[in-house]
Amino acid sequence: MSGPSAPLPFARARTEAQRDERLTQLAAVTRDLLQRSRATALTLGDIAAASGLAKSGILRYVGSREALLLRVMYDEHLHWIDALDRELPNRTAAAAVASTLAARPVLCDLIAVSPVLLGRLGSDEQRVLASQATDAQQRLGAALQPSLPLSDDQLSALTAAIHAFTGTAWAWATPESASTNPMVTDFESTLGRLVATFIAGLRAEAG
Q1: Which of 90, 125, 148, 188 could form a disulfide with 102 if both were Cys (CB 3.0 to 4.6 A apart)?
Q2: What pTM was computed for the model?
Q3: Topology of domain 16-62, per CATH?
Q4: Does domain 70-206 have CATH number 1.10.150.120?
Q5: Long-range contacts of 26-30 (CB under 8 A, 24+ apart)
């Protein structure tokens, strides 16, 4: 686990490049905090204290706490897809998906709470998120395609199912979650079985 990020030097971003850099720094600080805190418990005040910025300053850059958390989720998605792409040649698609997601608890936690976060976004934030979601879905489909010769519609359904299964299995298997299911104690194996079953259904459909 990496150590906490150093507080950001106070200087208002005046160019687009400076603004992008500040957003990247805030996302890194937030990710560090999420390694030690659930997304539902992380407050804007926590992020402000860790970054050395006032809450009003953070909101000026990111719009809302929810938008910042979803920006972190997008970044984590891209890192996960890279890891999945490296793992797919060595394992079945379901096993590779499950093991690489299990290694990224920050991403799993954010996926689990994303429906709540999405409901609190403004219209401009929703447009940005829709673009990020489309990009992540296309990248995931491209990573899975060589291992799973499915149609574009089937790959789209699979990527949606992976995220739905991840959020549900994470909530079921996480002890402090209000949705804990006593029948589910192993996130990775549960997710692997769900994804494998869905893939088998898609292959039967295609066959």
Answers
A1: 188
A2: 0.86
A3: Arc Repressor Mutant, subunit A (1.10.10)
A4: no
A5: 26/51, 26/53, 26/58, 26/61, 26/62, 26/68, 27/68, 27/71, 27/72, 27/75, 29/4, 29/5, 30/68, 30/69, 30/72
